[in-house]
Amino acid sequence: MENKVYPITFKKDEDYKIGGVSIPYLGEKYGTPLYILDKETLIFQAQKYINSWKKYYKNKYKVLFAIKALPILEVIRIFKNYGLGALVSTGGELYIALSANVPSEDIYFHGNAKTLKEIEYAIDQKVGAIIIDNFDEYEKIKYVLSKKDTKVKVLVRIIPNIEVNTHKSIRTGQTDTKFGLPIEQALVLIEKINTEKNIIFKGIHSHIGSQIFDISAYVKLSEVLSEVYKELNSKNITVEEMSIGGGLGVAYTKEDNPPDIEDLAREVSNKFSETIGHNFKLICEPGRSLVGRAGITLYRIESRKELGIRKYVSVDGGMSDNIRPSLYGAKYSALIITKGDREEIFSIAGKHCESGDILIKDFSGLWPNPGDYLITFTTGAYNFSMYTWYNATPRPAVVLVENGKDRIIVKRENYEDLLGGQI
């Protein structure tokens, strides 16, 4: 049968494949833990965004890949080839985007604590825009420009005051968020920017959170942006661009029911048609919804333990390669490739010296044997990028699969790599 949620096929004879490649074969060839990415899914998601905005938004639009979700050169190159730009939040992410040959004008730089060094780097590279988060950042940009004969385009990030139903750690649009400025303060900042010769105000930036399932939150955001647009127009300040951010959710478990990308484009475009028309370039900044479901992680089972009150199956990875369950209780689906024949409920534990290193607390499946493989789904986003070398654990390799072929796109680290930079 075919799994309709994830880019993997499997049959009763245990022929498990992704991108036409045998998953056990990949484990034997590259070792585990192993991140595996399906190129076809990456391309499908990118095209879905492009085609959806093209269908519903009647002016210019730009899709920026939020590379914090998966900062891998080959992934960024794939998206660049399908017309996507890049959203970066640090100097390091900017370096990666430029190294992937993303045109500098297609890179937007956001973040709430940019250093002088990062701002100067962005200006020197002539990025498409710096997204100003606060008044101090405005002063930093002025200082950097005072030493240069150049100009920089900017957006200003507002707090839209929209609560979304997602984990508190990934909400970004509520009143007390650390990101952006309240609208009243943002308007004051924009008026200041509008008096500058070398800081060119282009528009408004916003973001309401991550792993969002309710499209109505984006419709409400469109209403807020429309009001800001009207207010600035009344002051004779032109708004050329507005960003609705990213954050569209994906399915991690069978209970999750995320909206379709086309629904987002249709509802947001319709709302702007009602309020201010399509008189500006619309920007969206997906990360998770581009790469999340394209990835799986492959582990090898190392040990089992039956304690009476709880059973454990431990794998050769864990919170080093996927910290999200330990960090904020993220839930995942999994599949075990085993010849075991008895059903059990058990916890899938990582190898690290933390009691909280549990990938899945109550997993129902066949009781496996050491050496069997375990697959966790939807690990394309915020797994590789949030890797930690806790317990001196080398970073796993990343393999890209397509049409029955596989190739490594990030090498596995070795023990010697753990000493990099140490004296």
UniProtKB/TrEMBL annotation:
Pathway: Amino-acid biosynthesis; L-lysine biosynthesis via DAP pathway; L-lysine from DL-2,6-diaminopimelate: step 1/1
UniProt keyword Amino-acid biosynthesis present: yes
Catalytic residue list: C353
Family label: Belongs to the Orn/Lys/Arg decarboxylase class-II family. LysA subfamily.
Family matches, as InterPro entries: Ala_racemase/Decarboxylase_C (IPR009006), DAP_deCOOHase_LysA (IPR002986), De-COase2_CS (IPR022657), De-COase2_N (IPR022644), Orn/DAP/Arg_de-COase (IPR000183), PLP-binding_barrel (IPR029066)
Record GO biological process: lysine biosynthetic process via diaminopimelate
Subunit organization: Homodimer.
Positions of modified residues (N6-(pyridoxal phosphate)lysine): K68
Assigned EC number: 4.1.1.20
Stated role: Specifically catalyzes the decarboxylation of meso-diaminopimelate (meso-DAP) to L-lysine.
NCBIfam families referenced in this protein's UniProt entry, alphabetically: lysA
Binding site for pyridoxal 5'-phosphate: G247, E285, P286, G287, R288, Y382
Cofactor: pyridoxal 5'-phosphate
Lineage: Bacteria, Pseudomonadati, Dictyoglomota, Dictyoglomia, Dictyoglomales
The species this protein was found in: Dictyoglomus turgidum (strain DSM 6724 / Z-1310)
Superkingdom of the source species: Bacteria
Binding site for substrate: R288, R324, Y328, E354, Y382
Molecular function via GO: diaminopimelate decarboxylase activity; pyridoxal phosphate binding
Domain Orn/DAP/Arg decarboxylase 2 N-terminal: 49-291
CDD domains for this protein: PLPDE_III_DapDC
The protein, known as: Diaminopimelate decarboxylase
Keywords, ordered alphabetically: Amino-acid biosynthesis, Decarboxylase, Lyase, Lysine biosynthesis, Pyridoxal phosphate
Gene3D superfamilies per UniProt: Alanine racemase, Lyase, Ornithine Decarboxylase, Chain A, domain 1
Catalytic reaction equation(s): meso-2,6-diaminopimelate + H(+) = L-lysine + CO2
